[in-house]
Amino acid sequence: MKFTPHYNELQQKQVAILNAEIELFDINPTEYCLGWPLDQVNTILKGESPINPKKVLDKLWQHFFGDFDAENFGTDSAISNTYSEDDKLVLARIKKRMQDKEFSGQGVTSSTLSSRLRKSPGMISQLLNGKYAANPSKYLHEVWAMLEPAGLDEQTEEPKQTSEKKPITIRYGEVPFVQTSVPNLIRMACEQARDRRRIAVFAGQAGIGKSKGIERYREDHNDVLSIEGDEETSSTQILEELAKQLGIPKTGSNSVRLKKIITALKDSERLIILDEADKCRPNALDPLRTISDRAFVGVVLVGNIRLIDKLQSEERYELISSRVCFWPSTVGELPVTDIKTLFCELTQNTLPIAEDSDKWWQWLHKRVEGNARMLVEGLLPHLLTHIRKNPSKKVDRLMVNSIFATVLNKPTI
């Protein structure tokens, strides 16, 4: 932005901050004109004022940030140098919020905030006075989450829908499939096991989309025999489930049932997938090894990181691990691109983002720990609800941290 000569350095900084605040919170001009003609205010905020803009800028600043001194954003700030410019902006919002009429008489003080944060009143006082000597970001965001909570406004009446289009909802069991890197790896494991007629292993952290990947592959290949394991799954349950899916009668012993399954599957080019393999009892994998050997069919074992520990360190699993033909590295976190894809596709790009940049998506990836479940089942439903009730707001770090702090009981970052 080019400024006329009537702006000093501090006023240029004020204009930049005010414009960012107006854009971030999508503030209507009628809310910030403060009685001045809109053209005059906009001219000043464009840096084109033909006279010294001090009078208008000071009033706008007071409207947005109360008595927080704009000099604090300059080089001679009285605030500790541990505060970044973003920290100062959050602090300015906090101070203004505590001065608002709706907070007057509610006893919102350093003492009450310290009780909720379980910190000393002295520490909170230093934090809010800009004197905190350590990095203040985490605590400033936690204070802001208390004063401007997002996601706890369920009693607020939602604006009426202007069209018949239903609001986007994200509910467990009804989340549509989104293509990410994990289903791609699941598909590769299945194809390798099927082509080689051997065992493939895929292990990853909980909540990255392994089961979704299996579900998608099964939908695309109706010849797959899929079993979902749990703590009670033993060799008997494996044989019973395979017999059921193959239409084999339940009569006979396990050995008889095993022979019938092998006969039914021999040279069929079908595939067996065992999900949650890490949870199963130790003998659950034995019949799968035998069936793969004798029926010449592939088997895919999918589970959490513990599956790798079992296959690599426990002696009884050596006969399994020696037959593995595909074993990619364990997936601990989804890449940033997957988090962005999930966010955008599941919200159908309806959530306005304050800062759609690589830096923002990297931060969000860190915030949700690279975990699809934390993003999809934890964060997104609250974001959708909050934006639906507050359509003028944009998604930013403050809002996301507020949801994590007030709704999901997780610390801010």
From TrEMBL:
<feature type="domain" description="ORC1/DEAH AAA+ ATPase">
    <location>
        <begin position="195"/>
        <end position="309"/>
    </location>
</feature>
<dbReference type="InterPro" id="IPR049945">
    <property type="entry name" value="AAA_22"/>
</dbReference>
<dbReference type="GO" id="GO:0016887">
    <property type="term" value="F:ATP hydrolysis activity"/>
</dbReference>
<protein>
    <submittedName>
        <fullName>AAA family ATPase</fullName>
    </submittedName>
</protein>
<dbReference type="Pfam" id="PF13401">
    <property type="entry name" value="AAA_22"/>
</dbReference>
<dbReference type="InterPro" id="IPR052026">
    <property type="entry name" value="ExeA_AAA_ATPase_DNA-bind"/>
</dbReference>
<dbReference type="InterPro" id="IPR027417">
    <property type="entry name" value="P-loop_NTPase"/>
</dbReference>
